Fold this protein.
Amino acid sequence: MCAQFRDVQQILAGRNLRIPTLNVLRPDSQLYEILAIQPTGVVTIRPSTANPNFVGHADRNQAVVKFSSFLAQARQFNSDLVVSPEYSFPWEVLRTAIDTSQLPALGKLWIFGCEAITPAELRQIINDHPQVEWISEPIPNESGQFRFLNVLAYLTQTETLGGVTRHIIVLQFKYESMGGNTFERDHLIRGNVVHIWRNPQDNIRLISLLCSDSLTFNPVTAQDCRFDRDPYIIFHPQLNPHPLNVDFSAYRGGLFGRNSERFEVLSLNWARNFSLPGLAPSLYGGSTFYSKSPNFRFPDNRIENNHQLGLHFVYWLARRTQLNIFNFDEHIFGLRMPKVVQDVAAVEAARTGPEMLALFRWDATARVWTSTTASDGFQALSQAFAPHCNYCTAAPYTVMDRERLFMLSTGNVPTPIESVGWHHATNLHSFEAESDERSKRLTFTQEATQASVDYRHQHLGRFIELQTAILPNAGNYPRNIQDLAGDCRMVPPRSATDYRFNLESLSGQKAPATVAFLGQVPTDYAASVFDSIVQQWGGTDKARRLVVWHRDGHGTLNSASPPVPTFSEDSEPATSIIKGVEP
């Protein structure tokens, strides 16, 4: 089914209302703030005698308390964009917010995926709350057993043409039912309209796709949207145990496959462990912020801060797009973003990517959202592998330190694709999202797809064997690094030495080295990895302290290392094999 895309300005004009100027859509250099809830819990989707037309939280009381508290935080932080996923927002909370005038301030936009509701129930809510202006396509008169609407509610503030302040609630109905879910297929009353939001000075636009609406949405054929001309934010709220399914994500491939930087997507799903009747708890997550800004910045401290507060970066190389994956656990995420387009002087413009400001978890005992940091699962995985591995979880190293160390220590030193070096987040293989957007980050372990699990296990296993079995045995050291036997520790590669070394002298008297272990691989492959790293380092003179170990088909440990230089050979002083090593 194809939806009609309708300009909100035209709809409001028909009600003698001005179109609001929304902060999120201003093309200026100011940041805008987002507050997003990613709930979990048991979801009821089957009709019952008590609630014959319902999809939403099974625990009604807890849902009302959680979302009331979420709404209070939205008011407290005065966030520019406040969002919840599909089927999550209780109508009771919306009723109370209207009755108590706890609604968005001027310039703010709230977008809530509401729990299922019947046409009769929706009309009753509208009739009970005339103090706000309700706007929607005609509410269908369909009745009968088990028929409901899936509603996305936009809340904002505007004025009448006469200058009187008016709160408005614009309702958008899901138009494409989930065919594989026979309950929604058989009982959803489908809508026809997708609203296009923009400011009076038209520039950035915003649309929302409710979960499976994305299945029939094609950016190329959505002529009313004019993606060829206008910058867009797309909000994609879901209740989906498989959010990375190729059909749900196809529209993103279409958008970001274009050579354009003028699109951003916020896909917001329920948290992992939500459960649908008859199905195991979901392994996802999968909420993600997508951006293709060429000015996106990747300083280690930003990646670290975001990671600790539940926003995990990967690079979608196939689409040259930055993915910021929300931690899969139940949280409220507070972050800020530069505008997708900044119509300002060049010296003012900087699309630097998202920055996490706060993370909250639900305290079931106190029944409040409390400040927290995210659990990435890495420490638990490391302890399961090797409780005595003294690097994996040791402070003060950052997630970037660890990812670089693990990549270098396993011989995974790619030829840079971007203008920055192999160590950059856009070049590190562990930061590279697969074509299906799947993460294989080593320090973010919530992605449970088997290929990602295997990738983590392979690289961490090789690193741990290198640290705990190979390096402690002095007999394993070839002559070019023999001086470090018994006097070394593993360290992350650093900028001061061009990110080339991962082994340093404990005494500080010996030159650093680069060591890697490839596991059990063919000898010619090990040689090719060695040669590739030598080339990356700029030739043999900068690779005098390089060793690549591997095990052959019999399990015997072998190494590739450069020839030992003579005293007449020159090499850089900081890494010279002559320093501390006999010829």
Observations:
- DSSP finds eleven helices and 24 strands in the chain.
- Confidence is low (pLDDT under 50) at residues 566-583.
- The longest strand covers residues 81-89.
- Residues 450-470 form the longest helix (21 residues).
